[in-house]
Amino acid sequence: MDTRPGADGPPAVRDVAAALLGNIAPLAEDMLDHLARHIPEIAADPDLRGLTLGSCSSNLEAVLSMVRLGIDAAAAEAPVTALEHARAMASRGHSLDVMLRFYRLGHQYFTGKFAEALTTHVPDPAEALRLFLEVERFGFGYIDRISTLVSSEYLAELDRRQNRDRAERTDVVRALLAGERIDLRAAEAVLGHPLTGGQLAFVCWTADAGIDLPGTAQRVAKGLGADRALVITAGPRTVWGWTVAPRGATVPAPSPGPEVHLAVGTVQPGPAGFRVSHLQALRARRIAELAERAAPSTTSYRDVALADVMSQDLDALRAYVAAELGELARDDSKSRAERAALLAFLTAQGSLKAAAEALGVHRNTVLQRVRRAEQRLGGPRPSRRAEVHAALYACDVLGASIFRNG
């Protein structure tokens, strides 16, 4: 399709374009008023209004000059003011659709004004329509070309700002986690997250690269009773999150959904709590990974804090478990069932009924398993009750990893 208006030189089209070119300033003001009536964002922002006027003037001058000279619309370049307008729209958080509305409405204005001038200049309605359709083809080609260019600039500016904001947030988070002295008000402004209340940290991770982890993190925040979370990407398949929670509160950890693991710290006060709760969440993740929980799971540090402390020297813990449990320290179904029964029995302070309820089996089953476990230990060993209990707990939390060396 030929997008050169008057490529063969129709004088009427050139004359109309030249006449409108001589009237650019009032034409641009009128175009701005037309846009402002339909786009409320202009009225609310004087600086944006000024940029819009500049863009109107530059685009009108460019398109009319191309019409007058018969230049193909494919050769059009976005005016500097149009590109700056696109950057301003991105920086103010306006959507791409709102920005493109300027060009749709601008195209409407231009074609209306040109048609009005053309019908005045060309008395023959059929000839005026033929010429108008020719100009309209050019106008569509021009607006298609320019809207593509300004959209690219809008997205590039949005990406630049998002990268800058992300880098600033990451720098503040790193400083907080390093325990550095920072300006709290400035930090809160950058993060969009209060640091003076109770801080609750969590970690989400997955093996599936297709999971929307930032979105998952926001759903986790709602599950933790918060409106939103501060979320930092910590790798291709890991995000760190923080919410605000009442100090001293015990917040139940929610399910993160299929294919996602979640580790949650405890509520800790203030900027120091931002760091402490995060370290707890990382340690809870470490326990979950040591336990080789292949299925998506939620691990609360409150539930595994003892296992975390015990497993700081994992080789020493393995030796301890082997020494305390002896033949019971084996990774087979029979040993697992007997360890679970003895652990439940000790946790229930010797109550078979409570142990049976905890395990969901008959009390006689618990009794038989406890007796077999004690036989493999060489007897009840009351003097080592606490030590045996701790070893059984370590096996229960850490699973098969506790029986492997290295």
Q: Could you characterize the architecture of this molecule?
A:
The protein is of the alpha+beta class and about 400 residues long. It has three domains: about 10-160, Orthogonal Bundle (Globin-like), CATH 1.10.490; about 190-305, no CATH class; about 315-400, Arc Repressor Mutant, subunit A. Helix content is about 65%, strand content about 10%. It contains 16 helices and six strands. The protein has helices at about 10-20, 25-40, 40-45, 45-70, 80-90, 95-120, 125-175, 185-190, 215-225, 270-290, 300-310, 315-325, 335-345, 350-360, 365-375, 385-400; strands spanning about 200-205, 230-235, 240-245, 260-265, 270, 300. Strands 1, 2, 3, 4, 5 and 6 form a six-stranded mixed sheet that branches. Helix 1 (about 10-20) packs across helix 6 (about 95-120). The longest helix is centred in the middle third of the chain and has 53 residues, at about 125-175. The chain starts with 10 loop residues before the first helix and ends in an 8-residue tail after the last helix. It comes from Mycolicibacterium bacteremicum (Mycobacterium bacteremicum). This is PucR family transcriptional regulator. Belongs to the CdaR family. InterPro entries: CdaR-like_regulators, CdaR_GGDEF, PucR_C-HTH_dom, PucR_C-HTH_sf, RsbRD_N_dom.
Tally of DSSP helical segments: 16
- Identify the CATH class of the largest domain: Mainly Alpha
Largest sheet descriptor: 6 strands, mixed
- The topology string of helices and strands comes to HHHHHHHHEHEEEEHEHHHHHH
